[in-house]
Amino acid sequence: MGLGRRLYRGEIDVDFVGKWRLWYSLSGLLLAVSLAGLLINGLNLGVEFKGGTIFSFKSSQASVEQVRESVLDQGVHQVIVQQAGTGGWRATTESLPEDTRAQVQSEISKDFGVPLDQVSIQAIGPSWGGEVSEKAWIGLGVFMLAIILYLSMAFEPKMALAAIVALIHDLVITAGIYAWSGFEVTPATLLGFLTILGYSLYDAVVVFDMIKEVTAKLGHTSKQTYSMAANNALNHTLIRSLNTSLVAILPVAAILFIGTTVLGAGTLKDLSLSLFVGMIVGTYSSLCVATPLLVTLKEREPKYQAIAKRLASTGGGAKGAKNSKKAAAAKG
Amino acid sequence: MLLALFLALGGTMFLQQAYTPKLGLDLAGGTTVTLSPVTQNNAAPPEEILDRAVNIIRDRVNGTGISDAEVAKSGDNIIISIPGVGQNEAIKLVATTAELRFRQVLAMEATQAPADLATNAPTPSASPSGGKSDEPSASDPAKPKASEPVRPPASPSAGAPQPSTSPTGKALSSALVAPTPSTSAEPSATQSPKGQDKRGTKDGKSTPAPSDEPSQPPAEDPNATGINTEGIDPGVLAQFKKLNCADPANRGQGVQDDPNKQYAGCESDGSFKYVLDVAKVVGTDIDTASAGVRQGTTEWVVQLDFKSKGAGEWSKLTTAAYNSQEPRNKVAVVLDGVVITAPNIIGPIPGGRAEITGGFDQASATTLADQLKYGALPLKFNRSSVDTVSSTLGQDQLQGGLIAGLIGLALVVVYCLLYYRGLGIVAVLSLVVATVITYTSVVVLGHNAGFRLSLPHIIGLVVSIGITADSFIVYFERIRDEMKEGRRSLRSAVEVAWVRARRTILIADAVMFIAAIVLYFLAVGGVAGFAFAMGLTTLIDIVVVFLFTKPFIALLARVKFFAKGHPLSGLDAERMSEVGSTGRTTTPQEA
Which residues form the Protein translocase subunit SecDF P1 domain (chain B) (predicted)? Predict the structure, then answer.
């Protein structure tokens, strides 16, 4: 049977929990690489964070050189010219006073035969980026607190902790990818980062819900340790997790495709790129980080230690999650 | 219930004949200005002050006659949305503080003019003739905010302005006398005094050869020594000495003047610096302001009517100035910390009217009048971002967003059908229902609650397709679980699975909703719109799953095609690997 078919029939049984060492070291490595990237390369902050002016217009007859000259003629010191989609142009300069902005606008209009009101201007003050990122940090903090509270109530504090750690894991790795790749970070990217939070948790919540249901039945007589039960639950929701992630990533991929090919640089691309990267990382972490972490935390509880001990001594599925299949089969 | 919702939304759309959503400026084209308050230590300004600022800005925007503009608060920021482009004047108008103060001049000094300043503002206005300010500025001045005198509003003749002759009591002084002459220390030659210069130029009667000017030593105005320091606060005097008006930073936005203290400030073009007394008359003393052309001239002026208290103060202030020695016979009109004009007062001005001249053109006079009329902003603001989107760029983005949405939707539909077969149809129909509800909600909100669809909204909606679809997936997988156990009929499996799936869906949606709320209230700019879309679709998701998907599946469970597990239904036995077949039989429920 092919993998797809086995997946479809729910016959897949991957030992996510038992391989925790592998996942932890993989994630540890990824985190280290990401942090190194952040420290060495830093993030490539967009003009929105540094302050500056962006002129956008459409013209089929312009070239990068022409646009550059046309803008620099107006007493502008720095300009980055980008092509944005088909016939679209984007010239990014330092912060310009209002008069200069108007001059550049009319010069572009004249040089490339674009009506004046078809030259878009985006002017960002130098303090704006600081404000955006400050708000983002506050938002992040409040969000995490709210989630910890909510998950502690809906589930339990250890699940909340595991979910939050997985979430920070996702954010750091996504940021690391941005640092190494040099993708530009704009407010739209931040927006994407913040949304990843929701997704990353959404997936973890569904998995945890199943784990909670399964492990609630664990008692003195049960034949499964917490790890085994959790792994079972994880496998059980695996199809759903993969389906969900795929279904979530498909529209994002569509936006990324359109944003990159048709429109070029801009909000659409920035946002969907960070979502795309974040969702992939998020899917990995909800399977391979959140649950193993939860298990590590829970197995320390006396109740589950007792079960593990008992099973170990009787040999009934002693070797942890790996034997879950056997144990289950024995029962079934 | 769902039907009721449909009818309500659809009915509203029909009644209002509104079938398309209102578009935000990033899609329709227009200018969006974000104003951030400038406060000490970056402390958040009190809510009520921000609200007041919003109201004043709204009045000002409406006063300009721009239709459909919007002013809204977003966190500590104020966001102004103006449709169409090329409204630079309007943007300037709405964002400046417009704190007007009338202060008696205590001392003044010409700036060491840098070369360029000297060249364009140089006129030997020294001659008292320049003083014929009444002169209608035959040649329309560019738009120099020179310190032109405050003039009697109804001064009889353009030619010879005798304060005494001004017919009505409301006339105010006109500063015909060039500031210079009387002070001994100030050789008339040095008069670079801007005000007169400008006037001179305008009048065309002066002999402005710019080139002469630099040669004159107006720069080092000797009167530094001649300042009468009596009554001047030493601290302010020190500031005055240090003040460099050639630096635009000292006369731009962000200059603060405390009305209850003496103040050292610059003329708007940097030509003079002043020590000014405490403000005796302030903007709030103004009853109304209007822009007009001074009678018998082509010169634009701003006319002020004071409230009764203000009129009394104004009368006192002008009387005091009238009785003082040069340069204390001038009253400076200070706008946002910058002196826009400082005319001589030639007589007390009772009657509560005044007229400000200052080389205005129609636009600048109207702007100032509007600012004064609607009141000063209680806060200073930075224009932290100005975003002008042309209509074509907006269309491109709208198109891109919609195409992306359609592609995304199509991919999800194809996937659902391939994977879930018959059940996939339920998913697709549910998505269609969700899309219709979302669309009608957006339209209805747009026409009734001022909701404008912008790019972040569209992205939020597209991204949310995944969330909505996920609810179905959770439910379907649960049904399949129940079926796999093999001990249930489809009909009971649908019910049992629902109880379990419902809880998961609610918890997961709650997490999304918390995310949306936190983002909405704490984020800036487009983030709020995105969060709004996310929150909206999360709610719609719950509505659809509860009111459509679940009942619909329950209905299908009675249909033979599904109940018997037809291979295309997605519920067939073979696909379920039901009990008895090889492989794993454990389900978590059995653990």
Answer: 51-105
